[in-house]
Design brief:
This protein is an all-alpha fold. 98% of the residues lie in helices and 0% in strands. The protein is built from 1 helix and no strands. The N and C termini lie far apart (163 Å). The relative contact order is 0.03. The model has no long low-confidence stretch (mean pLDDT 95).
């Protein structure tokens, strides 16, 4: 009879233990799920940051290439201006020499 009395008590204890265990597992599942959601959110934010960095880097590379091209153009323009200045200086010297010659001829024609 004592075994018969113990059986319902064991079943009640078993059910209570099982219920407790299921509650603990559900609680742990919630914690794990919450951590998973947090990590997914963090991952999305990191991916977004990474994409922003890629865009910024791409923009910076494009801007650098553009500036390098503009710099080459300015260097070419500078060279052209220097050549033009050199040619203009030569032409001024030539004209000054011609004017000097004309002035001497004019002086000679006046005195002569």
């Amino acid at each position: 009879q004592s075994v018969e009395d113990a059986k319902p008590r064991l079943e009640v204890n078993f059910q209570a233990t099982k219920t407790n265990w299921e509650r603990e597992m559900a609680s742990k599942d919630e914690v794990v799920e919450e951590q998973r959601r947090g990590m997914q959110k963090q991952l999305r934010e990191l991916e977004s940051d990474l994409e922003d960095e890629r865009r910024n880097r791409s923009s910076a590379v494009a801007a650098k290439k553009k500036l390098e091209g503009e710099m080459r153009e300015l260097e070419n323009d500078k060279l052209q201006l220097e050549k033009g200045k050199e040619n203009a200086s030569k032409q001024v010297r030539r004209l000054q020499a011609q004017m000097k010659e004309v002035y001497h001829e004019l002086e000679e024609s006046r005195t002569g």
